[in-house]
Amino acid sequence: MAYEWYGHFSNEGKNYVITQPNTPRHWYNYMYNDEYITFSSQVGFGEGFAQDDMGRRIPLVMNRNFFLCEDEYWSLAGLPINYGYTDYSCIHTAGSTTINLRYNDISSSVRIFVPNNKMQEIWTISLKNHSNRRREVSLIPYAKTDVDSPYKPQGYNIATGDVYKEKNCVYGFFYQAFNSQRNLPMYGYMSSSQKISGFDTRKTAFVGAYSDEQRPEALNKNLKCTNSSCFAEKLCFALQNDIVLEANEQKTLHFVLGVSFSKEEIVTPEDKWVQQQFQAMEDKYEQRIRQVQIKTPWENFDNLVNGWLPYATDMGSRWARVRHNGYRDMSQDTDCFSVINPSLAWERIKRVLTYQYDNGYAPRTIIDGVLKDRNFSDNTVWLTFAVYDIVKELGDITILNEQVKFNNSKQASVYEHIRRSVDFLWNFTGLYGLIRIWGGDWNDCINYAGLEGKGVSVWLSIAWCLAAKQIAELSGMLGFGDYEKLYLERYQIMKDRIDQHGWDGQYYIYARTDEDIVLGSHTQEEGKIFLNPQIWAVFANLNKDNRHIKSMDKAEELLQSDEGILLSKPPYTKQYDYIGSMAEKPGGIQDNGGVYLHPAAWKLAADSILKNNGRVEENLKKMLPFDNDYYETKGEPYCMFNCYYLDYHGYRRGTPGQSWRTGTNAWLLKSTVMYIFGLHPEMEGLRLEPCLPESWRECSITKNFRNCKYIVKYIQTEDGACNNISKILVDEEEKDFDNFIIPPVEGKQLNITVLLTK
Fold first, then answer.
1. Of 26, 138, 191, 282, whose CB has the highest number of CB atoms within 10 Å?
2. Left (φ > 0), alpha (ψ -120 to 50) or beta: where does 570 sit?
3. Are 507 and 553 in contact (CB under 8 A)?
């Protein structure tokens, strides 16, 4: 189901056009640069804020609306729903959102975007008079703001707000720590390209004490602003622009919502400047995110991979989960971003490394100016994966010698950073020499299992094995033979410990608590099996007696559902003082037996490694937010979610949790490019090892790799010929490559045809 009744992809998949405003829930788009991020739904709802590298935040926009007043007033965002608007559309694309509609013979277009390097968002509003008479209207854009600190009923508000006519703006002035440990004078503002005729900065004056933002009291009474200043009350931003539209005339105005450190720095938009900012933003994303393009029989999947997943992954690698700068979140998204833009990924992983402690440990979260550890043990393990993949993508081992600071300003090479992270976990052990779970690992809701320091995470111990293999390989490439030998020895030691104490006879368990209670074993009544350790056993090649294969088979048997692969089963039904908040969630919700799509994307990679084509195809179909034969997701068709709800939740069956702010986007991108299409970066070139869905009889992928353009076309020569390469043609000439590794040719395009057989 492609939600054709709500919208469709257009412009070769770059745009998603929403054609009805009453989508099942708000369908969002995120827009961002390195300093500012905002989001908007199909009816303009959303927030925007500036944030420094330590998570100190300036909440500039808490909601927005765009009012047009004549004999009545209406919203240019399509609110309220079913008001009588016609010609409605909302176009979401990388970097911007545009809402179009027509009412009372006036059509409007509202475009929101974030420029490349400023703490602001820019609104462009166009109006056209379709009648044969002269129209006198007032355009009043409005923003709820929280720049003066989070509002609480009967709480303190200490900002002042007023008009600054020389800049055609209203502003809120306050003091806040930003890019500094000391408070700085700051201005949050809204400015107009046209001379203003009215304004409001006091929320109670414009909205009213008992009205709402869709029906402001000032417009209900007089169809205009009240010209209110604000002193120690709740702020808002509203500007009135009186406009005359002759018959069939169109006019365009621009507005900036921004943050500045002085009144002189406030930006008043001009048409040429806005056009330049918008074009530069579009150029940035065209170059940044469109480095991989696929073509399969699944058109909507192509649209997702060719632009939307890279866009969300780019956002995640800089903004993590938006509400907080999660260390492991940034690490993972940066790792996955390297499949399309390794140079930028390298700069971003170096930024992530600066939050690491010099003992190798890494914090969970960077927010509100401080590092918040929260006792999670897995934060540091993700660093090696990201650095390893970026080195392979760039083909340059020397970058590991670059010096990067720790969070106490001491510095060391990137290699030393990741070596310390691997060493920290090697020494951070509990029962049976496995790695401690402490207050949680990737599943941060198992937060009571190891607080005494004895409980261990089998999953994290497995993930550490992969990190040990990777740093051993990197050590060898750098000429550190002793370290290479050391980490391979430690890998074997940890592997043996896992085989002895992490295997329950059928599959890998998840954890052992401080009391040595096993989590994720067939011996338990609830939480008998967890998905993650089975997947990562494949990544780490825990192949004793083919256990990695047996455990994946068991996971498929026990955890598969119509809604997708479950994270665990059966769900916990009561509170356990040795588990944590996982057992306190309703059954089938998120990590307590739900369909968690982030690990589902991991499973795509693991199944591809094991050449389970049928599982790859089925799992992928169940994950996608469109064309789903199993259920209606009701979420945005152009991005991924963190989870789906199960059948026994009735009306919520198949509906998602949160969108955008999840590692699912990043890992689905990586699993598609690196594992399903099989483009594995090696120092010598791209190694081809596909695992294609059987229904993809022909498909192709284009990837820019080390200044060489690879166009790889796969052809299945017979039914079921999804994996095995029988012949490789380059520019129609048959070639032999060792291990199917195709070296790049600087500045060239390689047209590669790969014939597959059973």
1. 191
2. beta
3. no
Strands 106-113 and 120-129: antiparallel
Cα–Cα distance measured from residue 51 to residue 369, given in angstroms and rounded to the nearest whole number: 10
**What is the per-residue pLDDT for 206?**
98
223 alpha-carbon distance from chain centroid: 41
Q: Do domains 33-285 and 679-757 have the same CATH topology?
A: no
Three-class SS of residue 103?
Answer: strand
Average pLDDT over residues 161-172: 96
Dist CA 70 CA 327 (whole Å)? 51
Q: How far is residue 348 from each of residues 308, 320, 386, 665, 666, measured CA to CA in Å? A: 20, 11, 10, 18, 15
Q: Which two tokens stand for residue 343?
A: 């140079």
d(CA 299, CA 21): 24
Strands 29-32 and 36-40: antiparallel
pLDDT range class, residue 155, cuts 50, 70, 90:
low
pLDDT at 672 over 80: yes
Say how many residues make up the chain. 758
Instruction: Give CATH for domain 679-757.
Output: 2.60.420.10
Closest CA to 588 of 599, 604, 573, 610: 573
Query: What pLDDT, on a 0 to 100 scale, did the predictor assign at position 152?
Result: 56
What is residue 250's predicted lDDT score, i.e. its pLDDT?
98
pLDDT higher than threshold 90 for residue 69: yes
Quote the tokens at residue 443: 């599943």
Integer Cα distance of 557 and 571 in angstroms: 16
Strand ranges, E, within 80-196: 86-93, 96-103, 106-113, 120-129, 135-144, 160-164, 169-177, 183-192
DSSP β-ladder status, 724-730 and 733-735: antiparallel
The per-residue pLDDT for 720 is 85
Q: What is the CATH number of domain 33-285?
A: 2.70.98.40
Q: Which residues, other chains included, contact 371 with Cβ-Cβ below 8 Å and sequence gap of 6+?
A: 355, 363, 365, 407
Write down the domain spans for the chain: 33-285, 679-757
Tokens of 420: 């310390």
**3-state DSSP call for residue 319?**
helix
The residue to which tokens 């479950």 are assigned: 566
d(CA 314, CA 21): 27
Measuring CA to CA, which residue among 297, 340, 374 is closest to residue 580? 374
Provide, rounded to the nearest whole percent, the portion of the chain with pLDDT above 90.
88
